[in-house]
Amino acid sequence: VQLVESGGGSVQPGGSLRLSCAASGLTFRNYDMSWVRQVPGKGLEWVSTISSVRFIYYADSVKGRFTISRDNAKNTVYLQMNSLKSEDTALYYCATSGVRAVTGGYRGQGTQVTVSS
After folding, report:
1. CA gap 49, 67 in Å, rounded
2. Which of 106, 102, 50, 114 has its CA nearest to residue 77?
3. Hey, how many other C-beta atoms are within 10 angstroms of the C-beta on 103?
4. How is 70-89 classified by DSSP, letter by letter?
5. Which residue, 1, 47, 63, 94, could crosslink 25 as a Cys pair with Cβ 3.0–4.6 Å?
6. What DSSP character marks residue 60?
7. Sheet with 66-71, side-by-side order of all strands
8. 64-104: pLDDT as tens digits
């Protein structure tokens, strides 16, 4: 199984980024897909999950600003991030862990998001 994240970068507060995660080696449509993030020196934080049947869940800290979606034809999950704040700065991973979970399942190598003026 391979999960490859892309789309990270540096952006000013209030800006937007779209993260992508391409999956291979698994039957993608059968998996709940999540985004989790980690700030250096801190633990993993669950961000969002889209289930195999497209139920969607968000952490309170990102609700109304982030949008998760998936394209089963492309084996890809996305995270559209708007109105970014400095506290969103983290290494973002996609994972097959479930709602509000930060461990278990498969996880990619991550893509860095830095929000700074």
Report:
1. 10
2. 50
3. 9
4. EETTTTEEEEEE-S--GGG-
5. 1
6. T
7. 2-6, 17-24, 76-81, 66-71
8. 999 999 999 999 999 999 999 999 999 999 999 999 998 88
